[in-house]
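Module 6 notes. Inverse folding takes a fixed backbone as the condition and produces residue identities as the prediction. Think of it as a translation problem where the source language is geometry and the target language is the twenty amino acids. Below is one complete input and output pair. Work through it position by position during the lab.
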């Protein structure tokens, strides 16, 4: 698959052999069904554990598929992309842009690892405490002659 402009270390080539149930993953996106705002790319939305992609383990939900068997998916409608997958043959080569670890707008809806629900409770408790202190100061101010 020569001639691609993608040279990012996050771009990988994955070869899959179609199994009895196909390639074993679902896609979303396309120029007619943008999955991510201002990005008409094709993304992996679901991987079947017992499918070809699930057993291989390299393709992940949220990955962007750049090409299939050398055919770029950029500018394709969802329907056209699905047809390319259906007619790709038994041995399929995918060029994939791996999702970034802190990608928050994709199929997984994941959050960066450094965020914790505990921090939200801490902020909420601090705001409640501050409100209580201001209330006391205000009440004392009103009760002075």
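Target side of the pair, the amino acids:
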């Amino acid at each position: 698959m020569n001639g691609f402009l993608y040279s990012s270390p996050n771009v990988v080539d994955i070869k899959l052999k179609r199994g009895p149930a196909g390639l074993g993953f679902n896609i979303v996106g396309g120029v007619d069904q943008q999955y991510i705002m201002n990005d008409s790319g094709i993304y992996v939305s679901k991987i079947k554990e017992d499918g070809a992609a699930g057993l291989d383990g390299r393709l992940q939900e949220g990955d962007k598929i750049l090409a299939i068997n050398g055919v770029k998916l950029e500018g394709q409608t969802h329907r056209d992309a699905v047809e390319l997958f259906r007619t790709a043959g038994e041995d399929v080569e995918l060029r994939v842009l791996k999702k970034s670890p802190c990608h928050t707008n994709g199929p997984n809806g994941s959050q960066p690892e450094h965020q914790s629900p505990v921090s939200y409770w801490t902020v909420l408790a601090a705001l409640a405490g501050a409100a209580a202190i201001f209330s006391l100061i205000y009440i004392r101010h009103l009760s002075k002659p």
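Reference fact for the lab report: The mean pLDDT is 82.
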